[in-house]
Known about the structure:
Layout lengths: L1 E2 L20 E2 L5 E3 L9 E8 L2 E5 L6 E7 L2 E7 L5 E5 L3 E7 L4 E6 L2 E5 L7 E13 L5 E12 H5 L1
Parallel strand pairs: 1-11
Antiparallel strand pairs: 2-5, 3-4, 4-7, 5-6, 6-9, 7-8, 9-10, 10-12, 11-12, 12-13
Amino acid sequence: MTLGTGHAAAAAPATAPPQGSDWEPAPSAPWDVAAGERCAFALHGEPIVDEVVRRELPSPAEGVTRSAYKGDLVVRVTNKATGAHYDADVSGSAVVDVHASGAQFWRVVGPVLVGVGDGNLARGMYVVDGVYTIGISPTGGKTVTGPVVATDSVCGRIA
């Protein structure tokens, strides 16, 4: 799953959810980030495998929507200045609460792609993996916490 580069929406996944399932496709859109926003150089991200599905869950409180996400996702992240790229396998699973204020709270198992401008990680683009939570403020600040968290700098891989 991609977090921090915009909301998911684009090409249909390679496989459809099972018939009779309440899972629905949740494709990720290609995205661009200007130089200095995440890395020192401009980035382009494009899903090359996208089989993510989404399912609405009962709301935990008024003004909060809760959804579950799962499925294979590989995003090619490209340094627009040099063409260097990295294929990030970000096939984690998450339960996401979205509050009316715009705040979000993610409970994640496995890898997701996280773009950070403001938060408890340095500005950058990361594959975050493990068992953890991500809190996103209404202004977009991100806080990643948990008992098992590993980060891999995508900026460093394609600099």
